[in-house]
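pasting input
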Amino acid sequence: MSTSWPLWEVFVRGKRGLNHVHVGSLHAPDAEMALRNARDVYTRRNEGVSIWVVKADDITASSPDEKDPFFSPSGDKVYRHPTFYSIPEDVPHL
Amino acid sequence: MADELELAFERTVQAEARIEPRDWMPDGYRKTLIRQIAQHAHSEIIGMQPEGNWISRAPSLRRKAILLAKVQDEAGHGLYLYSATETLGADRADLTDKLIEGRQKYSSIFNYPTLTFADVGVIGWLVDGAAICNQVPLCRTSYGPYARAMIRVCKEESFHQRQGYELLMTMMRGTQAQRDMVQDSVNRWWWPSLMMFGPPDSESSNTEQSMAWRIKRNTNDELRQKFVDMTVPQAEKLGVTLPDPLLKWNEERGHHDFGQPDWDEFWQVVKGNGVCNEQRLAHRRKAHEDGAWVREAAEAYAAKQVKEGVA
């Protein structure tokens, strides 16, 4: 038989103070089971203090084909970086 | 256009950068990866059986807890890897069907029987040791999700190998009968462990392209040599003899010389004629079929929750 359990993407917060990071995916019939399965598959050795599961279908991703044009608006804005500004060396704490 | 995409792919791979799921990739690259990762996943899942065989007969609660954790890890490794294949467009249920119908393979090592409890230790030491040799370079494989799965797997394999070696050290401190049991187990697993690296480079059809794509990072013979060099001093410390009369240090090469496994036996087992091939697949098929009602019930429950507006 084939089941139609949806695919869930799993995100784990390694410890307090860190972001949740994508670790992989799994299939589960519902969100609660996805969370329990994620605990067993991805945190058997204290790898996390918090887990998010998100249905893979609910994720909208940027396309790799247009990654250059998509991110190009920030490419020519060098003035957004602190190193763009020259400050005399003898100015402290800047 | 296709040429441009192919060039961008080649450049990424040559620069040691990673290919990620939605990047353009050659069909052959995708197919090779699905085949290799699925075979690897199947090996982890089938690999639960030889040791699972001893869980109920482990000699102490400590050994039983360790063995349970290890077998659970193997299931986890299988799941990380199936997850990686799905990023390539494969379907997990379809891969399971292919395994139980015998249309995809798994590592031949799991078609050998575990006759004594010493086999649990020797599998941890030699079989997982060989797996580590194979898998450590795969942490740098060119496909991102596979590389990341391998990093997780390798961290956990270290526990597997150490528990095996510790188990054997304990038995070697025991009675003569126990020491004999360890030696007998080493005699049976040594050659199949060497076969885990695959046929000699001269007969390995997939190696060249896989190396060019940086899926594979070392040849079969390189990894086999590395494994032998690593294992010899461990065997000495343990006090067992590796059953190869040709095994000796070669000062000139800076490596051990060693004999070749029986490659006819290897191909026989690959073709399905090993001692346990039928049993392993039958067991996997039964577990899958026996679990059908659980999958169906969970699905029905989820559908009911949605209908009642709970979830």
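fyi The interface with chain B takes residues 1-5, 7, 24-27, 29-33, 40-41, 44-45, 61, 63-65 of chain A (CB under 8 Å).
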